[in-house]
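U., I forgot to send this yesterday:
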Amino acid sequence: MPQRLKSNSRWKTGVSLIGVIIAGILLNILGTKLNALLGLPLFLDDIGTILSAVVGGYIPCITVGFFSNIINSLSNPYSIYYCIISVLIAVAAVAFADKLRRYKIPYILLGIVMFAVIGGLLGGMLTWFINGLSFGEGYAVDMAAAINSAVPMGYFLSNLLSNFLIDFVDKAVVTVTALVIYKLLPMKLLVFIHTRSWYYITILEKNDRHNRKRLSLRWKTTLVVALSITLVASAAIGISILQYHNSTIAEYEENGRYAARVIREHLDVDRIAEYLSEGEKADGYEDTKELLSTVIDLSPEIEFAYIYRIEEDGTHVVFDIDTAEVEADAPGDVIPYDSSISKYRDRFLKGEDIPVDITDDEYGWLLSVFEPVADSTGKVQCYIGVDMEMNRLRSDETEFLAKIISLFLGFLILIRTYAVWLAEQHIVKPINSIAHVSRHSSYDTPESREKWLSMLDALNIRTGDEIETLYEDYKTAAHNTVSYIEEIQRKSEQLTKLQNGLILVLADMVESRDKCTGDHVFKTAAYTEIILWQMKKEGIYSDMLSEEYIDEVVNSAPLHDVGKITVSDVILNKPGKLTDEEFRIMQRHTTEGGRIIEKAMAIVDEDTGYLNEAKNLALYHHEKWNGKGYPTGLKGEEIPLSARVMAVADVFDALVSRRSYKEPFTIEKALDIIREDAGSHFDPYVAQAFLDAEEEVRRVAKLNLEL
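Result:
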C-alpha cells in the first residue's frame, strides 16, 4: 500500500474510533440528564454503551462505559466507583451485539436480563459495600421495604430484588432506544466503521494451529500489563488500608485520652478512698458519675468509661456506668483483672503509664486507654479507663476497599482492552506477517527470490518502534542476501582485517570527522575529569573513585562517540532537525561504539580497565537515571558510573557549544538545565558534583568558547 494511502487509512481509522466513543459518551450523558429532568427512578446511562457495542465492538464500547462514569462523577462523585459495572455491561453488550444487530427478540430479552443482573445485582451489592454494608436511601430502598413487607425475605435480598427489577426496566428502555438509533444510522457509515482495524479486536483470542501449543504474544502482552497493574494497585491498596487503619487507631486513642483527661480534670483525687468506702453516699460522687455518663453520650465511639484502683487482690471499682448491654459494677467491688489489666498488671501496680490496648471479646472490638490519676503527693490513686468501640472502622475499611477495587477493576479491563488492540496492531500482526513471509522465503530460482522480496516489500510495516527497525533490518538483509552475497562476503573479509588495527586510530578518526566533534570529545573529557575529582573530594562513590579508575575514565572519555564513525556524514552534519528515521540511525552510534571497542578488546585479548571503561562510555552515555534513555533503558546504578558522569559532561558541552543547527546556550542556562534534570536524566550525585565545581566548569567552558 502506498504510504499516502496508508496514512489516510490510519487517519480515518482514528477519526472513526474517536467519533464512536464521543457519540457514545454524549448519549450516555444525555440519557442521565433526561432521566434527572423527568424525575424517573431509572438511570438511562447506558444507551451510548449498548449502541457503541452494536456499532463498534469492544474498543469503543468499554471506553464509553468507563469514561461516561468518569465524566458523570464530576456532578455525582459516587459515579466513579461504578466504572466496573459500566465496563461489565459493555463487555456483555458486545457479547450480544451480533444478535442485537439482527433484532432477534429472545436474545434481546436475554441480553436485557444479563444487563440487569450486572447493573441490578452486582451494582446493588457494590452499593451495599460502598455504603458501609447499607443500601442507603431512595426509591429502590422504599420499594425493597414494600417487597419485604409483602414477602418477607430480609433487608439484603429484598434490596437486591428491588435493584434488579428497577434495572431490568432501565436496561429494557436503553436497549430498545439504542437499537432504534442503530436502525436509523446510514448503512454507509456502518460499513465504514465495520471495516476499521479496531472493529475486529476481541477480548478473547481464538486459538489457531500456531497458538495451541504456546502462549501467544497477545496473551503475553495482556498478562504483563494486567500483572503489572495488579501488583502496583494491590500494593497501593494495601498501603492505603494500612495507613487508614493506623491513622484511625491513632484517632481513637487520641479521642479516648482526651475524654480521660476531661474526667481527670473534674475528679477529686484526694477523695478516692472515700468513694471506695462510701460509694454513692460520698459527697460529689453523683456529680462525677454524671460526668462519666456525659462523656459516654458525647461520642458514639465511647462504649465504656470507668475509674478503677488496681491492687494486688484485684480491680477495685471506684466508678462504673451502666450501659444498655452491660450492668455496672458497684463502687467498692473487687473484680478479677480483665485481659487489658492483666496484660500490664505490674505497670498498673507501680502507677506507670499504660499503653493503648485493643481487645475483641464478649464486650466487642474495643480500644482501651488508661489514664493514671495521682494525688497531691504524686502517688497514683486510680486509673481512668475509656473503651472506644471500633466497629465503625470495619465498615469504613469495607467501604474503602469496595470503592478502590471497583475502580481498579474497571480501569484494568479498559487498559487490557487497549493493550490487546495495540499488541495486535503493533506487535502481533507485524511479527506474524514477517514470520509468514519468512516461512515462504526461497533462494532456489531468480523468480522465487524476486517473489520473496516483493512479498517482504509489500508489508510496509510502519510501527515506529523496534519492530519497524527489525523489519527494515530484515528487509535490508534480505535484499543484500539476494543481490550481494559475494560482495558481502568480500566486504566482511575486509572489515575483519580493518578491525585488527582499528584500536590504534579510533580517537584520531573521530576527531577528524569535523572540527566540532573533535573539540567535543576533548572538552567532555575535561568536564569528566572535573566531575570525578570533585566527587572524590566530596566523598561521593568513594569506594570506586581510586586514582587509577579516574585516569582510566578520563583517558577513555574521547572514545565515547566512537560509534559515530558508522553514521553518515549527511546525518552527522545535517544543519536542521533530524527526522525520526535519521534520529534512530544516530542512536545506533552507542551500540556501534560498544561493538567497535569489543572488537578491539578481542584483538588485544585482554579485558583492560581502559578498554572496559571505553566500552561503558560508548555504549551507555545516553542512558538516563530514570531508565528512559537508550540503547538498553538501564536506570539508576545499573548504568556504569563512568557513563553517568559522561552523560552530564556530554549534555553540558552540547548545550554551550555552537552547532550547525543551533546557537550555543549561555553557561547559566546550561547549568540550570543540568540542575533541573538531576534525578531524572542525570545521577543526582554526579550532577551535584558538577554544579559544585562550577568555577572549574566555567573556566573550561569559557576557554573553549574562545576557540
